[in-house]
Structures are given as C-alpha cells and as structure tokens.
Automatic annotation (TrEMBL):
Main location, first listed in the record: mitochondrion
InterPro entries reported for this sequence: MCP_dom_sf, MCP_transmembrane, TXTP-like
GO biological process terms held by the UniProt record: mitochondrial citrate transmembrane transport
Protein name: Citrate transport protein
Top-level taxon in the UniProt lineage: Eukaryota
One term of GO molecular function: citrate secondary active transmembrane transporter activity
SUPFAM superfamilies attached to this UniProt entry: Mitochondrial carrier (SSF103506)
Solcar repeat ranges per the UniProt record: 31-119, 130-216, 226-311
Membrane topology, record value: Multi-pass membrane protein
Family: Belongs to the mitochondrial carrier (TC 2.A.29) family.
Species of provenance: Parnassius mnemosyne (clouded apollo)
GO cellular component terms attached to this protein's record: mitochondrial membrane
C-alpha cells in the first residue's frame, strides 16, 4: 500500500456496527480499537435489553416443530403463553447470556475487521465492494468461533429448557456448569458450522449494504456528515437484507443448538430432515419476529454507537 498524503481523511473514522448480528468498521489507530470495544459493549447491552423479547419469541417459534410437540399458534400466542406461565420477565429468559457475551463479541469483531481492513483498503483509502464483503465475512467468522457460538448455544438451551415442565437451569453460571459437566466443552459449541455460516453471511451482507448506502449518500465526498436518522435508516435496510438472506441458516443453527440437537448427525442432516418433514417454509420460521428485531436492532445500534463514539472522541484522546 502506498503512503497516503498528509491531508487525507480516513473515511472509516469509527466502527459502524455492533450487536447480536451486525457488521463493524473501525478506522484509525492507537486507542480507536479500544474505544470501539468499550462503546460496542455499552451499545450492545442497551440494544439487547430493548430487543431481546423478539429474539426470545423468534427462537421459540424456530424450536416449535410440527406435530405433537407444537406449542404455539404464532407470535402473539407465544407471547401470551409465556407471560401467562412465567410472567412478563419470562420473555427475558436467556438475556444474561447475551449480556455476558456482548463485550468479547464486539472485541473480536472490531479487532478482526481492523486487521482485515488494513489489507483491503485501496490506495485512496476506500474499500471496494469485494473488500466490504471480505472484511465483513472475516469479522463474522471470527466472532462466530470465539464468541457467538458458545453464547448462542447457551442462550438457546436456556430458552429450550423453559419449554420443559420442570426447567433445570437456575441461572447463567449454573446452566453453563451443567452443560459442560454433562456434554463437555463441546456442549457449548453445538452448531458451530451453521453459526459460522450465519455470522459470516450476516456481517458480509450488513457491512456491504451499510457501507454502500453510506458511500451513495456521500456521493464521493468523504467529509460529508451523515445525520443520525440517516444512519439508523441505512442500518434498518442493512438488517432487513441480512434477515431475508440468511434466515434458513439461522433456523438450522437454532435447532442444532437446542436440547434435541442429538437427533441430528450434523448441520447438513438437520437441513435435510427439516426439509423432508416440514417443507421449505420451515426455514423461514420466526422470520417476522426476527425481521422486527433485526431491523430495529441494527438501526438503533448504528445510532447509539455513533453517538457514543462522538462522546468518546471528545473526552477520550
């Protein structure tokens, strides 16, 4: 890479994504990466608390197979039965898992994206379309392996456990100890292949769409300010694109991480059995609650994160 002129302004001055499923872009050097990790953890915690009930409902519907084990008639039926049986906070079962995992997930995502971007930036300091996809994919795969898979597996098992007559897990740490004791460390790595596919495609799609829309809005002017409401709007579009692009992968991942995952030999076997017994529409179970969550999630994540980074850049030199 050639030396960039002194008056060049890095167009990637802050990370653009952080959440249970979003792409990130961090620029600059020095403490920018650390700022991204801290800001990402704060943003992730706020976002999860706001949107977790839709994630809970989505997971319940994806685990709800046809036949004798089917429990819910739809989204509202799931909410109604959960609140009736476990109270309003039953919709927050498994929340602690995502809260505990948000900071390391952000750290891995931002760190890997930063390193990948160093290799993918062109001489004029921009990313090509291929570069956007590649950096997002690298970040997604890394976070899937190091953070998302164990976090998501425990979350799904917690929610799945609540479907039983006598839930076994008393809390986050008790649940993790039980899972590791009975299944070994591999017990929290169920569905790793499907999770890599999901997170990789999530980050690639979201990062590509978000950065492309941002470039379009700026019209070649790298210094042009993007208003917060525009950032949120673009984030919502990017989130929606990822939902329609990879919900089938998300369904398979969820089933591979549930308490009945033992009936599947591997990710491909889960895909085949689901297709054979429930048909292709089964791969889009939970799309509506997931869509509502992800669109809102990515939109507020962009907006909150951008605002936090503005504050950090002012007080944290």
């Amino acid at each position: 890479m050639s030396t960039r002129p002194g008056n060049f302004k890095n167009p990637f001055s802050r990370p653009w994504m952080t959440e249970t499923g979003a792409a990130a872009a961090a620029g600059g050097s020095g403490s920018v990466g650390l700022k991204g990790v801290v800001a990402g953890g704060i943003t992730g915690g706020i976002e999860i608390c706001i949107t977790f009930p839709t994630e809970y409902v989505k997971t319940q519907l994806q685990l709800d197979e046809k036949g004798g084990t089917k429990k819910y008639a739809g989204i509202f039926d799931c909410v109604k039965k959960t609140v009736k049986g476990h109270g309003f906070f039953g919709l927050y079962r498994g929340l602690s898992v995502l809260l505990y995992g948000s900071i390391p997930k952000s750290a891995v995502r931002f760190g890997v994206f930063e390193q990948a971007k160093l290799y993918m930036l062109t001489e004029n300091g921009t990313l090509t379309n291929t570069g956007k996809l590649a950096c997002g994919l690298a970040a997604g795969v890394a976070e899937a392996v190091f953070a998302v898979t164990p976090m998501e597996t425990v979350k799904v098992k917690f929610i799945n456990d609540m479907r039983t007559e006598k839930p076994r897990y008393k809390g986050f740490f008790h649940g993790v100890r039980t899972i590791v004791r009975e299944e070994g460390i591999g017990g929290v790595y169920k569905g790793v292949t499907a999770t890599i596919m999901k997170q990789g495609s999530n980050q690639a799609i979201r990062f590509f769409v978000m950065e492309s829309l941002r470039d379009w809005y700026k019209g070649g002017d790298r210094d042009k300010h993007v208003p917060k409401y525009i950032v949120g709007l673009f984030g919502g579009v990017a989130g929606a694109a990822s939902v329609f692009g990879n919900t089938p992968i998300d369904v398979v991942k969820t089933r591979m991480q549930g308490l009945e995952a033992a009936k599947y030999k591997n990710t491909w076997d889960c895909f085949i059995k689901t297709w054979k017994h429930e048909g292709p529409l089964a791969f889009y179970k939970g799309t509506v609650p997931r869509l509502s969550r992800v669109v809102f999630d990515v939109a507020i994540t962009f907006t909150i994160y951008d605002s936090i980074m503005d504050v950090f850049n002012y007080i944290w030199k």
